[in-house]
Amino acid sequence: MSHLIEYEDASDEVRAVYDDIRATRKTEYINNFWKALTNHPPTLQRTWQNVKEVMTVPGELDPLTRELIYIAVSVTNGCQYCISSHTAAGRAKGMDDAIFGELMAIVATANATNRLANGYQIPVDEQFKL
Amino acid sequence: MSHLIEYEDASDEVRAVYDDIRATRKTEYINNFWKALTNHPPTLQRTWQNVKEVMTVPGELDPLTRELIYIAVSVTNGCQYCISSHTAAGRAKGMDDAIFGELMAIVATANATNRLANGYQIPVDEQFKL
Amino acid sequence: MSHLIEYEDASDEVRAVYDDIRATRKTEYINNFWKALTNHPPTLQRTWQNVKEVMTVPGELDPLTRELIYIAVSVTNGCQYCISSHTAAGRAKGMDDAIFGELMAIVATANATNRLANGYQIPVDEQFKL
Amino acid sequence: MSHLIEYEDASDEVRAVYDDIRATRKTEYINNFWKALTNHPPTLQRTWQNVKEVMTVPGELDPLTRELIYIAVSVTNGCQYCISSHTAAGRAKGMDDAIFGELMAIVATANATNRLANGYQIPVDEQFKL
Amino acid sequence: MSHLIEYEDASDEVRAVYDDIRATRKTEYINNFWKALTNHPPTLQRTWQNVKEVMTVPGELDPLTRELIYIAVSVTNGCQYCISSHTAAGRAKGMDDAIFGELMAIVATANATNRLANGYQIPVDEQFKL
Amino acid sequence: MSHLIEYEDASDEVRAVYDDIRATRKTEYINNFWKALTNHPPTLQRTWQNVKEVMTVPGELDPLTRELIYIAVSVTNGCQYCISSHTAAGRAKGMDDAIFGELMAIVATANATNRLANGYQIPVDEQFKL
Questions:
Q1: How far apart are CA D12 and CA D31, in angstroms?
Q2: Residue C32: partners with Cβ closer than 8 Å, 6 or more residues away
């Protein structure tokens, strides 16, 4: 288990990231993921920059849809921390039991049909090769 | 590579599935996935029933969002057939280069942070354990 | 793509492995997997030793069941070469379309329920913790 | 962690599924997996229908072999809940330490050779392309 | 398959990335990966920034070791494009058949023991929990 | 959870493996992985033989590099036991926070770009096909 580094014990460069996380997310809470990445500041900075851009810069996809995609990946990979944290984030953005249930049903079905396609060695249809 | 079974060569029970696929999707085209599963009719029937329910029964998620989730799983697993077919389906439902780009950016970032969470062995925050 | 090394071009230590593969499998044919591993003889020797022990030493599981398990793993991982070669091996040991269909149905279902268990973060029942 | 829904607190449609699980498995015990899926009744119903068909409808594969395949997938994916529950199910159907050991040996070897095939980029033999 | 965008057809912001790739790698060649990501310029820019930092900024790990790690991940995931491109990159940085063979042997063994640890549900030793 | 078998309770053939582990690693400590595999002695013997050869026979790669590769695979697969044990082994061989941070950054980036290559269905460059 990684050492979790608190704001008080962090360098100035790390505090700047923590401050940006707080400002971007409009909450004082810094979750353990960032406190752990602080063990390697360049990774903390790069990862936050990526997540911030991908999850918060306005674009085609709304914030809830972005969380659903994040959860779909995390559930497929079986990453417990990411499932927990992004499920919480999704619920904060409006995901209720019905939406979560539909999400899980699609994730489960896709994981199943992915293997049927693998196992039956199905050739890609010509019209899908664009 | 699996033998692909055409409508003309299929049993009545298989033709019923093909008919339902055509009616549900409002297209004559049956893609290779279903023609391959026909090698085991119970799997064809069960899989189509699952996909039909999960992808077409009205619910909280719109059809495009469902395809984005399907693609996110297929890309994470690296299933070439599923990526090809669901990318085509997504485009038919309105996915353009910008939406696809945002989707890929989230999928890539989630796959990265999943491994950072694994590697740093980050404990789940108490407030995420609900 | 790896260079495939033929018997004629192989060292004595590699030829000994090829000879053992032929004797164990009762066929002259050496498939590409072994010809590619020959690029690193210690890996060729160790891998053949492992596969030979695990797949051919008499034990509790019959040869067909062993191939079914091998295919289940390969399909889950999406390894095209392994799916192709072990599907061929399975068919040589009695796997017909019905058995393959049942195998794929279980593999697909297990891949689905694995993700439902991940996503719903289901706690292990006390009685399963033995 | 998901809320687990007990029989007493369930709707009639959910109770019908629980009753069918009990009748099919000939045990009063409902394991946590189903109690969690109850948070989304359509997913509960569909998943039980799939598992019931795939694992209990008489076919070519005996019940123990089906559990071995289920475990092989779950171990490859690293799904803790599924490994625990299907290992228990396997043991109830006759899996002893020797069978489990052979199963694990095949799963481990297949996971290894899958990566050797990937890494060496081995072309599929012509005779495997049927 | 994605449309590959050439330098001549690219916007100024994309050309700046291509120029930086060429300058950093000291070669005129832009490989298909970047030409495909150009379909979504923010993803192109972010991904190049990440790869450049992680693979070229001087640090503790030498360039060849970084490629070996990249290959280990790509082989585990079965990403054909990444295996091909990073195997080429590794060879350009000194990876010969012996090094590649040792790398593959470790990757194969780790993938095997990962599943043995999963399947046997081995508790983490107290002394590893630091 | 598997029964862990101690030296005192082990057969002579198992004790011989435990003795070799101790002699090879120059420590009295036998970690839980081996105590669990003892439930199937052939798997214990084969697995130790593989790990010993791959991780300790002198070759092109130094011991720390071998651990970094092992960790990269284990983190990609999300194997908690293997991450814990090989992180400890890596630290014993000189891995500090900076090296671990660089390793994690590469593993994260590779997992991301693997999915971008999958999703954009990028064709392998001719010059990478050797």
A1: 18
A2: C4, C81, D122, D123, D124, D125
- Give the pLDDT confidence of E42-77 residue by residue, as tens digits: 999 999 999 999 999 999 999 999 999 999 999 999
Question: How would you write chain C as a 3-class SS string?
Answer: CCCCCCHHHCCHHHHHHHHHHHHHHCCCCCCHHHHHHCCCHHHHHHHHHHHHHHHHCCCCCCHHHHHHHHHHHHHHHCCHHHHHHHHHHHHHCCCCHHHHHHHHHHHHHHHHHHHHHHHCCCCCCHHHCC
Distance from the Cα of residue E68 to its chain's centroid: 9
Kindly give, in sequence order, each residue whose CB lies less than 8 Å from that of residue E77, ignoring residues fewer than 6 positions away.
B78, F76, F111, F114
**Disruptive mutation site among A97, A103, A122 for chain D (greatest number of D CBs within 10 Å):** A97
Task: Give B111's contacts in chain F (Cβ within 8 Å).
Answer: 111-112, 114-115
Calpha distance E83→E72 (Å, rounded): 9
Q: What is the three-class DSSP state of F103?
A: helix
**How far is B67 from B82, CA to CA, in rounded Å?**
11
ipTM reported for the complex, 2 dp: 0.97
Q: What is the mean pLDDT of residues D88-97?
A: 97
Tell me which DSSP letter residue B29 carries.
Answer: -
Per-residue pLDDT of B96-112, as tens digits, reads: 999 999 999 999 999 99
A 5-64 residues with CB < 8 A to B:
29, 31-33, 36-37, 39, 43, 47, 50-51, 53-55, 59-61
Q: What is the DSSP letter of D9?
A: G
Asked whether the beta carbons of E63 and E93 are under 8 A apart, the reply is: yes
Neighbouring C-beta atoms of residue B53, cutoff 10 Å: 16
